[in-house]
């Protein structure tokens, strides 16, 4: 099992943030199926202010650069969901130029 920790920001608009949260309370079934199909076994997203933190567990063979694009190809609704969610989001300032969700460096684990 692999673990990934990622971060990004929501746009600084309280109404958009509430809409984003509402979408996630009723996530589209096709997107959930698509995440599982590419090897994501568990995903949690946390919010503080406008900063999002995503914790993912995946199968050992999961590769984030290969398998996230596979997720987008899994079902047209997965791509539609991603495009919609990006209207609420923006990369953090420390993200690499090719990152949307920025990978976080593990620092401590108990």
Describe this structure as you would to a colleague.
- There is one protein chain.
- This protein is of the alpha+beta class and 110 residues long.
- It is built from 4 helices and 5 strands.
- The protein has helices spanning 14-25, 29-37, 64-74, 76-86; strands at residues 2-10, 40-48, 51-58, 89-90, 102-103.
- Strands 1, 2, 3, 4 and 5 form a 5-stranded antiparallel sheet that branches.
- Helix 2 (29-37) runs antiparallel to helix 3 (64-74) and helix 3 (64-74) packs across helix 4 (76-86).
- The model has no long low-confidence stretch (mean pLDDT 95).
Report the β-strand fraction as a percent range: 25-35%
* Shape annotation: globular
Q: How is the quaternary structure best described?
A: single chain
Mean pLDDT: 95
Largest sheet data: 5 strands, antiparallel
**Ranges with pLDDT <50 over ≥5 residues?**
none
Count, helices = 4
| Radius of gyration from CA coordinates | 14 Å
What share of residues is helical? 25-40%
Termini Cα gap: 16 Å
Please give the number of β-strands: 5
SSE succession: EHHEEHHEE
- State the secondary-structure class: alpha+beta
Question: Briefly, what is this?
Answer:
39% of the residues lie in helices and 27% in strands.
Could you name the key traits of this structure?
alpha+beta, 5 strands, 110 residues, 39% helix, five-stranded antiparallel β-sheet
């Amino acid at each position: 099992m692999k673990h990934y920790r990622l971060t990004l920001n929501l746009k600084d608009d309280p109404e958009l943030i509430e809409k984003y949260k509402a979408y996630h309370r009723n996530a589209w079934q096709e997107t959930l199926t698509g995440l599982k199909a590419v090897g994501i076994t568990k995903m949690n997203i946390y919010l503080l202010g406008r900063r999002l933190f995503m914790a993912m567990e995946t199968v050992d063979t999961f590769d984030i650069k290969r398998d996230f694009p596979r997720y987008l190809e899994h079902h047209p609704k997965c791509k539609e969901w991603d495009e919609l969610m990006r209207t609420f989001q923006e990369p953090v300032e420390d993200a690499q130029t090719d990152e949307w969700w920025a990978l976080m460096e593990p620092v401590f684990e108990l």
